[in-house]
Every structure is written in structure tokens, then in C-alpha cells.
Amino acid sequence: MKSLDPTIPALSGYSGEHWRLAAGIPANIIFTRADRIQFVCAGLGLMTLGFWLSGLVGLRQRGEHVSIAGAVTRIATFSGAMGGLCYQLFILGPRMNLALKQWLAAANTGDSSRAEAFRAAFDADHPAASRTLGFTSVCVAACLVTHLWAGTGGEDQARRGRT
To answer: Distance between alpha carbon 1 and the CA centroid of its chain, in Å?
Structure first.
């Protein structure tokens, strides 16, 4: 978008870089929809974790061996993913959305100095947003790998190799 250097006619009074808003408005829609999908997936993941934990309790009550390391790893990776998601959904995302809306509103009125202040606030949060998405993605991937490893009997094979 930057190389296209668009000019938005509705923002003719705004002296800032129009390409940033031209890219930011549709990206905001995409991120908002992704947040909704993540929220639903987190609920499903939490439900699945609850079912899995209740299954573990049943196994332990029957006297079967349950890997504590596997359980701790799953809970830790899931908790990390949920922590990153909650930070994004309830703290960082709303703050960035507000800054974007204020930036756009100021640009619409031609108040370039205020618009640039809101853009700076938005840009200041952008690195944290990238890190949060990366952290959450790594935690989700680790959680999935842990579940797949346990589902293939990896925990049992590792335990048998040690005994």
C-alpha cells in the first residue's frame, strides 16, 4: 500500500500519509473478525481442556498412571495462549482500536496535528501487538504439539523408555 501512495479524497484536509489509513481500515476489520474467531476457539479450547482434565481425574481414580509432566505442559501452554489472547482482546486491542478511530476522526476533520498524535499512539502499540500475536501463536502451536504427542502414545513410549 505504501508504494501505491494513495490519496483518500474524503481526507483531503489531512496532511499525513493516507496510505497508512488506507491500509489500516481494512486491516482493522480483518483483525476484529480474527479476534472474534479466536474468542470462539478459546472457548472451545477451554471446554476441551475441561473434558480432558475430568478424564484425567477418572483415570487417576481408577489407579492408572497419568503423566504429570504432560498435564503441566498442556496447562502451561494453554494458559500462555489464553493470557496472550486476553491481553489482546481486553487491553491492547481496544486501546489500538480507539487510537485508530480517533486518528481517522481527526483526519476526517482535517486536524492533522491531532491525527498524527493518535497515529503515534497507535504506532506505539503496534510492536506489542506483533509480539503478543507471536507469543500466542507459539503457545497454541506448543499446545497442539503436546496434545498430538500424547495422542500418538508419545508419553507412554517416553515413560516406558525410562523404566
So the answer is: 24
